[in-house]
Batch of 2 targets.
Target 1
Amino acid sequence: MSLVDEWRRTVFEQAVADLRWAKERETNVVQWALLLYAGLIAIDRTLEPLGWVLVALASLELFVVLYWIHKLNLFRWTTRKKIEKTIKGTPAVGFVGPLSNSQDEGAIYVRVKYGVTVIAWALTVISIFWPTSNSTTV
């Protein structure tokens, strides 16, 4: 194997590791978002009702989470393009192959994360304004 092929293989392996890293970060962002939404609901249930303040915090969190998921997805997309260029430029493609779905699921994977985040936000807002048994209504 020539030095150029070894370099291309190294670039390919690093790009695949980058894809894995970005996917794990996307999952972590969504998990932390769900945890923070639960925290906002707990604050609403234990303290005096803050209503719109908590909705504003939940909305701010929604936009930050969607921004991070978008940026990580953009990073994955550019990394994917780098891998495709590396594979095309390699005369002997025996050591690499097309990326499998386990390495990058693509658009469906990201849409599910967007959906989970937005649904969790909606449920948080509903829960904040949902009357509880200890709330005083007139």
Target 2
Amino acid sequence: MANNKPLTYRVFSDLTSAVKGMADRISLGRPKTIADSVNSIISVALPNTFQPRFAGAPEMSVETFGYFYIYVRAKTDGTMNVGTQTAIVDKVKKLFPIKGEVSISTKPEERYMGFDGFGFHVTQVMFNIRTLININNK
């Protein structure tokens, strides 16, 4: 039975399911406001377009890049909470390859982004995403 939800929605679902429970909050993009009780956030981003992998068969398999942004609340003196930041990033990277219902994510690359100016330090994990062959013919 074919799933009628858009491919982007289905890939987001694969990714958010993979990181569920690893942070206080999972979001699509950085939330504008964050409760004081939230000390860690994993944001999922798909800012790129899906590109066909095979000429003449765009429905078969497409690829793009995705990002997890790991936000961890700074210590009261504004410094990075290295232990928590490292623990969450390591847990996320150990998930790879992430095989979901419609996609597989591979090749994680980590980059520390710094302080976001709103009380959190941010690490980016960029990765390759490709859809599984014949996802619409299950």
